[in-house]
Design a protein that fits this description.
Elements (H helix, E strand, L loop, with lengths): L6 E3 L4 H11 L3 E4 L5 H6 L7 E4 L9 E4 L9 E5 L4 H5 L4 H4 L1 H6 L6 H4 L4 H7 L5 H9 L2 E6 L2 E6 H4 E3 L2 E2 L6 E8 L5 E8 L9 E9 L5 E9 L6 E2 L1 H7 L6 H12 L12 H29 L1
Parallel strand pairs: 1-3, 2-3
Antiparallel strand pairs: 4-5, 5-10, 6-7, 6-10, 8-9, 11-12, 12-13, 13-14
Helix pairs in contact: 10-11, 11-12
The structure holds flavin-adenine dinucleotide.
Length: 301
């Protein structure tokens, strides 16, 4: 099938991009890497009358680590809206500074798709089975949004509203996503199960643990993908881990807590019961891997 006709716009700078979106409102769709939008257009599941291509706004391709300081983004990795998933994956700073993001990126589709798809586009698209919305939620990332009304930051916890629906207004442009830099002695892991490498996973788990000098957990982050209409944070399981020793018993208790109230979707890829089961297994696996990586950080320091 071919897309329905649309008028194509390609503004050359951020001000023109924001002004174009303000003029066109909900008749327009932003085009970033096109890896989700173009299939939707081709299947006529989306039929905007205007398509606004962001690719010429080169300032938005930056990926910056902002160390502690006075500015609003101090202590964050700032990923600009045109930075591709592959740009960030190949950036040598990311594994040490935001290890959960580094672990999740190679699980997205295939390199050809990551060469075009953007980090911000994946979060703006908000597919509940996608890796990066769960990473953003687990880490308390901030989504930086610009429109003719100004710039604002939306916490990831307020961003994902329902299936493919976010707190964005039709004329909003996500200009960056800010990921907090990891504290020392943090280990992280993203684990998922899919039928074939590169497929959207049936379920996934983002886990991050920070240890104190005695090896006890001082910070725990857990978010699940593919088990609801939005990515889910497992706050009660996180609370149970903080202050605990990182043992298999603690990880088993966290897994039971994280999955107790899950009511995942049933579809052609997996039954609800199977999704719930693998989510529990993945929580344990991801926590164990995060713990091993946090310990490895101790040995290197
Ligand atoms: C075969 C295949 C397999 C895939 N497998 C996976 C997978 O396993 N895991 C995964 O996470 N993803 C997967 N994807 C999707 C891929 O990661 C997309 O790149 C991503 O979901 C969207 O990013 P994009 O830059 O391509 O956005 P686009 O497709 O250009 O846009 C997606 C949506 O987000 C909006 N949008 C994009 N950028 C912005 C912005 N800056 N501000 C406001 N709105 C914006 C667009 O208007 C559109 O509605 C797959 C894609 C394909 C084709």
């Amino acid at each position: 099938m071919k897309p329905a006709p649309f008028t194509y716009h390609r503004p050359a700078d951020l001000d023109s991009l924001v002004a174009t979106m303000a003029d066109l409102g909900d008749e327009a769709k932003l085009l970033a890497g096109g890896q989700s939008l173009v299939p939707l257009l081709a299947l006529r599941l989306a039929s905007p009358t205007h398509l606004v291509d962001m690719s010429r706004v080169l300032d938005l391709r930056a990926v910056d680590v902002h160390e502690a300081g006075e500015s609003a983004d101090a202590g964050y990795l700032v990923v600009g809206a045109n930075a591709t998933q592959r740009d960030v994956e190949l950036d040598l700073r990311i594994a040490a500074r935001v290890p959960l993001l580094a672990d999740a990126l190679p699980l997205i589709a295939h390199p050809q798709i990551r060469n075009r798809g953007t980090v911000c586009g994946s979060i703006a698209h908000a597919d509940p089975a996608a890796e990066l919305p769960a990473v953003a939620l687990a880490l308390d990332a901030r989504i930086v949004v610009r429109s003719a009304r100004g710039t604002r930051r939306i916490d990831a916890s307020d961003f994902f509203l329902s299936y493919l629906e976010t707190a964005l207004e039709p004329d909003d442009v996500v200009v960056a996503v800010e990921f907090p830099l990891a504290a020392p002695h943090t280990g992280a892991a993203f684990h998922e199960i899919s039928r074939r490498h590169g497929d959207f996973a049936m379920a996934g788990v983002a886990a991050s643990l920070t240890l104190d000098h005695d090896g006890r957990i001082v910070d725990a982050r857990l978010a699940l993908s593919g088990v609801a209409s939005i990515p889910l944070r497992a706050a009660a399981a996180e609370a149970g881990l903080v202050g605990a020793a990182p043992t298999d018993e603690a990880f088993l208790a966290a897994s039971s807590e994280a999955t107790a109230l899950l009511d995942p979707p049933d579809d052609i890829h997996a039954t609800a019961a199977y999704r719930k089961h693998i989510a529990g297994v993945l929580v344990r696996r991801a926590l164990r891997a995060a713990h091993e990586r946090a310990l490895a950080g101790f040995e290197q320091s």
